[in-house]
Amino acid sequence: MSATIRRADVPPDLAIGVRTRVSHLGTGASTDGLFGLYRWDMAALPPRAGKPDGHYHRTFAESFYILDGTVSLYNGDTWTDATGGDFLYVPPGGIHAFANESGQAASMLVLFTPGAPREAFFEELAEIVASGRELTDQEWDEVYARHDQYMVRAAG
């Protein structure tokens, strides 16, 4: 046997605060580095103040496919409200961001190619949120650099 299946009733692998549940559908390790596929389920909570800063990755592409709800996607230039069936491809070096600002639940698939080991990044984010630690910009930059994520902070 060479194929694997993950059933729909398997609980998410990770909680990032109360807002996000992440399911590791296909990790870089389980796909021999070909891709990483994750399901992001975002709760129906009031939006946070302000949109997140954009970021980019040097060594992998990232794609977003909206399953349900509305997710705000940033393409490096503008924010767009994306709904079920909408798709955004971000090449290596492409600035992007996402947020659930709708106040309603939303779900999307996030694909990394090649299969970057993103689980460690998601786990570190979850630990920071769960612990309530406040990081300085320099500490955040160190976290991001460990995981091939480079922030493009908004001016002002």
Topology readout:
Elements: E1 14-16, E2 20-26, E3 36-42, E4 54-56, E5 61-68, E6 70-74, E7 79-83, E8 87-90, E9 97-99, E10 106-113, H1 119-131, H2 137-146, E11 150-152
Antiparallel strand pairs: 1-2, 2-3, 3-10, 4-11, 5-8, 5-10, 6-7, 6-9
Structure description:
The structure is a single chain. The chain has helices at residues 119-131, 137-146, and strands at residues 14-16, 20-26, 36-42, 54-56, 61-68, 70-74, 79-83, 87-90, 97-99, 106-113, 150-152. The N and C termini lie far apart (55 Å). 15% of the residues lie in helices and 36% in strands. The chain has a six-stranded antiparallel β-sheet, covered by helices on one side. The chain has a three-stranded antiparallel β-sheet with strand order 7-6-9, with no helix packed on it. Strands 4-11 form a two-stranded antiparallel sheet. The protein has one domain: Sandwich (Jelly Rolls). It is of the alpha+beta class and 156 residues long. The chain is globular, with a radius of gyration of 15 Å. A hairpin with a 3-residue loop joins strand 1 (14-16) and strand 2 (20-26).
